[in-house]
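Chain and conformation:
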Amino acid sequence: MSRERLSPGVVDYEDANSDYASKPVGYNVDGVDFNAALEQAKQQQQQQGGGEFVPEEDEFDEDDAVSDVEVKQVELDAACRVVDDDAEEYPGVKWISKEKELFVPFVADPDRPIGMRGIVLDKKYGGAKFVDKDMIQKQKGVLTDLLRQMGQNIMQGKSVINISLPVRIFEARSFLQRIADVWAYAPCYLTKAARAKDPVERLKYVVTFLVAGLHRNTLQYKPFNPILGETYQAAFRDGSRIYCEQVSHHPPVSAFQVFGPDGLWKYYGHHEYIASFRPNGMLAGQEGPNTVEFQDGTKITFSYPHVKLSGAMFGERLFNYTDTLVFEDKKNNLRCDVVINPDALSGLKSWISYAKTLSDTIRGGIRRGVGQPFDKDDVDSRVCTLDGSWLGGISFDGKSYWKMGEWAIHEPVEPSANVLPSDCRFREDLIALKAGDENLSQSEKQRLEDIQRRDRRLRQQHQERVRQVRQRHERQKAHKHHH
């Protein structure tokens, strides 16, 4: 993918004649004319100007080289400014103006015991258990499909790498939309954290925000992998704005920014998605920094847990989290450790006996001093203890801060105006799957994946050109210095 250096606030879209601009499906989605918006953005960039990304041979300056991540950050910042300038992007949305309206009772659904259809609490081992038998069978059949595709590609002399997963196991959403699911309690707990005067109380609410949302990841359908440069924008009804963008293809990295109402807080970071397969399951995770920043300059950083999925081929399909979550507030010298499944057994013991507590149990506490893990027996540093379950609730020193099914979940609302052409809702494969056309969705998914592979090759060629130019100028500098 060729790029020109961007002037501040200018979004660099693909050429209007490229494959990305040729939209056989969804020319006009939610009132947005894709090609018209693309042409307008291109004209704006041309009017403002910009230099070649790769400098001329006789005038190379390493400080002028812009990385892919820096380019993407410019695009993301521009997206935020463009959208925030228009108050008509969410017509008909009833905004929440009072804090008490954020905490409304959860309405129980007998078919969705923990808020997700086809999933129940596992009372024997712990964690979430998938009980949608039709979906489980579809997923088990994927391996057979992949082997068949590999055989066909070998017979036809094609690469075995370019294999597309069947869309029948997908939901009609991008992963950029999925990552916002976990933030369902941001309007509740991050706003309460912003208004808390006590740093310890503020930290408790930030911890509660993450723990309360973890169960929202327990979905059986796979989202579509984002394409490099793909974006997603949405809002919570309290006025919080969500902006996400895929900033790297290999490794897959998604950047995000969430701005709370009235500037009370902002939540930002990026996640690299990792996965490793096991004999009967997989271990996956979203690795990267997460920061919640408040108006007084306080920053609370934390990590996400890894996901452990078992029963992929045989046995019950169980979803669990692992790891210790670490939250740090360096300004106030506070640290909170949340240990998931603290009584887990390892080695041979895990095969012949049960842990004394369920695997979704959490335990830990807050201490003063960010350099050491929490120790409940260290009375000098201990501030408070916590316990509970990411599928049940969380308490600090016996006081409940969240219970499953107590408060309603806040779903993001998506704008119908001023949407970037790169928004994931304009993807042809998503549009086709949402319309129920799996065949068209599959072919569009394959087409987009082929384009992305081609663009990756172009980027690699471009990087090689930059490397060669840099080496040539180093030799020229050395030659001038010698003489």
User: Anything to note?
Assistant: The first strand starts at residue 28 and ends at 29. The chain has nine helices and 21 strands. The mean pLDDT is 77.
